Request: fold
Amino acid sequence: MSLDDRKLEVLRAIVEDYVETQEPVGSKSLVERHALGVSPATVRNDMAVLEEEGYIRQPHTSAGRVPTDAGYRLFVDRLSKVKPLTPAERRAIERFLIGAVDLDDVVHRTVRLLAQLTRQVAVVQYPSLARSSVRHLELVPISTTRLMLVMIADTGRVEQRLVELPEPVPADDVTDLRRRVNEKLAGQRLADTPPLVQGLVDDCSPGHRATMACLASVLLETLVERSEERLALAGTANLTRGGVLDFQGTLRPVLEALEEEVILLKLIGDLEPSKTRVRIGDENQIDNLRSASVVSTGYGPGATIVGGLGVLGPTRMDYPGTIATVRAVARYVGDLLAQN
Amino acid sequence: MSLDDRKLEVLRAIVEDYVETQEPVGSKSLVERHALGVSPATVRNDMAVLEEEGYIRQPHTSAGRVPTDAGYRLFVDRLSKVKPLTPAERRAIERFLIGAVDLDDVVHRTVRLLAQLTRQVAVVQYPSLARSSVRHLELVPISTTRLMLVMIADTGRVEQRLVELPEPVPADDVTDLRRRVNEKLAGQRLADTPPLVQGLVDDCSPGHRATMACLASVLLETLVERSEERLALAGTANLTRGGVLDFQGTLRPVLEALEEEVILLKLIGDLEPSKTRVRIGDENQIDNLRSASVVSTGYGPGATIVGGLGVLGPTRMDYPGTIATVRAVARYVGDLLAQN
DNA sequence: ACTGGCACTCTGTCTGCGGGAGTGCCAAGT
DNA sequence: ACTTGGCACTCCCGCAGACAGAGTGCCAGT
Reply:
């Protein structure tokens, strides 16, 4: 049995009402609130079919219907229209983002903005090192046997590591090292650096070989291999909106998941397509987030993508609005990055 | 009427039992669990006095007693003995903190460790810039009209800002600027720099005056005036332990407070004495945190203090254990910083 | 294919009713 | 002057029963 247009219309109405009222929706109130042009009895028949097909369910006999994950999925894929942002929202975004002095600042403002606009939990990934290129490497002598290695990436990220040297190195040699390292690596994508770094060590005069090897290993280990992703999070208090009704009783599992960077990265960090991605309930593959949905997208200057951002909320969420907001914020942030 | 020893003993027993069981404690169960050597009736009389004095209260007639904020205060000040850490805990601390590569890493490990050991929300302040000295200032040319200013502080903090120059500056001049800036500022406490920075501008040759002024203003504005405090937070999921019983029903206000850096700084950022500080309920002066207590202390290499750390939990918390852990972690972190 | 009607089911709420825990007070004992 | 056992009292909590309300499924009629 396929679903005719009216049944789809009924599903949409159920989702919309349920999202708004947070209560199971019955046939009678449905026809009252939406001009469906048919009687409650007809709607009931449609509902029976929708339930059969797994798009809605009843919490208990003789309660109204509630969308299932599959129902939300269908709604998102086929039934929802893009909801344009209000001018007020656009202005809010602009006002919030101009005046950021710093990559840190941009990220923090963005995450707070997202949380505020969507009234949900927001996550923003810093531009990924793996997708960045080296703009400059700086070596700052801290003592004769210690260097601070500072890497500045084209995405604005700045990372630093302390390097313990095997032997004292005079200042002139540091200058030389700096020049050589930059000649080789500046402008390169971080992902392409490992062979180049190896080359640096090989080409090195025996006198500095040990020092350079040390530098190289720090570079590889901490910047490339364990490719240091950073995240910002905001709006956890929004989880408590709608009482404890969403999230089946306790926030605990959700809060726990939000503490795990690995999990968050998995949630927002699939940057392949430039499309916005919606993961509903079980779809995000994490037990703790069964009753949560994630709307995420990539951002970056121009068409390239350097990081992800998104929001997390109850499966019962305003998908069209959230999707529109996430997209808009991502675009603004991308533009902002492009200016630098 | 003053409180004799037995009444204090009764108060201590009430606090201990209530913290453990989370239930109002009655006279009968008290004498059963603690060898007080008197009958329940006597204890009841003592309780009446303690209630009169405001140290305990009854949730309702004919329920057991529960400590008030004042009761906890008295307990913390006079009744609790320091609870030494177990060897296992000491080992956990050491294992957790060695192998930190980075200030960021140290802070993150510390905050997670604190959250885990105390099973509460942990907050760690990065070493305060206001309490740091300049180790080195680096100027990295990004383009001819843009510099990246990187400041490395003796506490390990590294801050960077983009500086837009009023006019193109050739590389040699950058070298010169760098030398001059470092000569003047390296080794100085950040708090002392403003007049020195002004001096730098004044002493500058007219040709570079504009550039230096620009640099100076970035330095002053973003590093000194708005003295950039950073924080790390972990363990919010621990708020859900003990159900929604603590925190009078909703986590909302607490989560909201935890999102405000300003509030968190106020909570853990009173670094004057080297003593551990306990703020119970209303004492922390924040409406949202009426039902929360904060245990905080300063940390730093040796005797100096460069930042604060602490934990936040329900007023019904294991104070002796928490205090001991917070202190121990602060000491270990201080030692770790001293090594750099 | 849609609709009105009807019986049925289930929830949520309110009520009333012990059981239990704990208190306050009092009179007696040390 | 404390301390103690006894006792009446209060109030919470849990449970069972009743009831209204909402919503459904089904069926017969159009």
